[in-house]
Amino acid sequence: MNFDLKTLGLPEAAAEKCDLLVLLVPDGFKPGTDVLSAVVAQALKNADLSTKVGQNLSLYQVPGVAARRVALLGVGAGDARGVRLGVQAAAGLLRAVSVKRAVLCFASPASADAVAAAVQGVAQASYVYTTTKSKAEARTLSRVIIGVADTAAVTQAFEHSVAVTVGVEFAREWGNRPANYATPTLLADAAKGLAQHTGIQCKVMGPTDVAKLGMGAFMAVAQGTQEPLRFIELRYTGAAKTQAPIVLVGKGITFDSGGISLKPGAEMDEMKFDMCGAASVLGVFRALAELQPTINVVGLIPACENMPDGRALKPGDVVTSMSGQTIEILNTDAEGRLVLCDALTYAARFKPAAVVDIATLTGACVIALGGVRSGLFATDDALAQALLAAGESAQDLCWRLPLDDDYAEGLKTNFADVANVGGRPAGSITAAKFLQRFVGEFPWAHLDIAGTAWKGGAAKGATGRPVGLLVHYLLQASARAEADTPPPKAPTAKTAAKNPVAKSAVAREPRATPAAPGK
Ligand code: BES
Ligand code: MN
Ligand code: ZN
Q1: Dist CA 326 CA 316 (whole Å)
Q2: Who's near 94: CB < 8 A, 6+ residues apart?
Q3: Which domain holds residue 279?
């Protein structure tokens, strides 16, 4: 889909030829003397429209308005949250088969985050999953103009958010694919595909390499399946090689049956989403390809299935992790932490500035925070603050939970250095405490996205979260690093030849319509 940002007052919006014009009307809307202002003012006066979030009024062929359809949409305070929820409520309008070209126009001045929320909302509403359908109904909406009174203040946020939509869709796509269309091998192929973009490299390891590294915990999870494991290592190099990277680690369980500690049958299909952490890492790299920021990022994905068979891991088995710590497996369904612990040990070799892991780790997190906020754990306050703030500005929220050592009590065992489960109380925290044992000398954060990565029920599907949060965080980190480094000396002929294109926060390559994810 193509997004454009345009300076549009209400008189100009009325002249935009399109299939659908959505007017975002916030509280305290001040009408001008134009036709759209008059319609909105009348509708508000007669209480046919309210500025409450998601309230809308549809109109057809309004005299003096070039758009065929017009929708007046309440967006509450007009902030990012109001716009996100408002556009979400109007998703049906944006999905109409007759709507190919749409204009979303802010009726009052808009903040940068509100513009980003509009872009995210439209992309989210219009995404269609097609991969495993025989009769694919493609997305009809192909061109969207976001109209604001003043483009200058919001251009950067707009460009960033368009890149985020590309990453979010990539993550949704891989999240949604069933386990037989998203095996560890196919995930690795998707990662290799990303390496076609400037600045991205990919290395994939299989069972033999992983055994050489001594990743005994990761290997243990994969031993009950026919599907070979993959350890994916992505690198984005946008800054000097000497700059410490931020490492993202994504849980890539392509199907979680629970293993010998088999899950109940109801909704077990949803465990195809257990690689959404991995998908979010892929999505972030897809967005980095668009944005080309001045930063170094490493993505690590331990990918495998968790299945029961004659060779599968058994409760009571003890395995040796890459760190040397031995782990007693009390529940084979607590497999996420087993694949992550070895990836966290591996992460230390990059001497990272920070490590953030992303995982659909615990059902307990769904109970604690539901689908609104992801669980956040961090050993470093500055890192926690940065992630919380990124979540706010991306409207991809998280909430910090504690890491008191007392929570680790339940992980003690007589038969190994640590057990892989504590009791039922505070299950998300004990999982995080387990992971913390494998964290080296770097600031670390853990995002439990079990409740936020996908939706169940009629709207079943991956959300692409927390790609927005992570991209915002990385862009902030890149801006901070740029502010901290002294400006480079004027390039000499030699360095200019070595580095022919200047790095900037804006896409270097012309931004084409994103290729279908997975291609
Ligand atoms: N992938 C699940 C976590 C999960 C469960 C996410 C339900 C979303 C919805 C994870 O591997 C798991 O099974 N965790 C167990 C841990 C328990 C055995 C300590 C859980 O949460 O029940
Ligand atoms: Mn599990
Ligand atoms: Zn799992």
Answers
A1: 12
A2: 20, 22, 87, 102, 122, 125, 126, 141
A3: 164-481
Which residue type sits at 417?
D
The reply to whether ligand 1 has any atom less than 6 angstroms from the CB of 448 is: no
Which ligand places an atom closest to the C-alpha of 254? 3
Q: pTM score, two decimals?
A: 0.93
Ligand nearest to the CA of 329: 1
Tokens at 20, concatenated: 């659908």
SS3 292: coil
Q: Which atom of ligand 1 is nearest to the CA of 453?
A: 8
Question: Residues 108-152: pLDDT tens digits?
Answer: 999 999 999 999 999 999 999 999 999 878 889 999 999 999 999
331 Cα: distance to centroid of ligand 1 (angstroms): 10
Closest residue by Cα to atom 13, ligand 1, is 333
Q: Is the CB of 334 under 6 A from ligand 1?
A: yes
What is each CA distance from 128 to 125, 176, 275, 363, in whole angstroms?
9, 11, 20, 27
Atom of ligand 1 nearest to the CA of 451: 8
**Residues 51/25, Cβ–Cβ less than 8 Å:** yes
For residues 171 and 261, membership in a common domain is answered with yes
Residue 447 lies in a domain: yes
CATH code of the domain containing 118: 3.40.220.10
Last residue of a domain, one of 91, 116, 150: 150
In short, whether 315's Cβ falls inside 6 Å of ligand 1 is no
User: Are 54 and 177 members of one domain?
Assistant: no
pLDDT in tens, 46-59: 999 999 999 999 99
Phi, psi of 424 (to 5 degrees): -75, -35
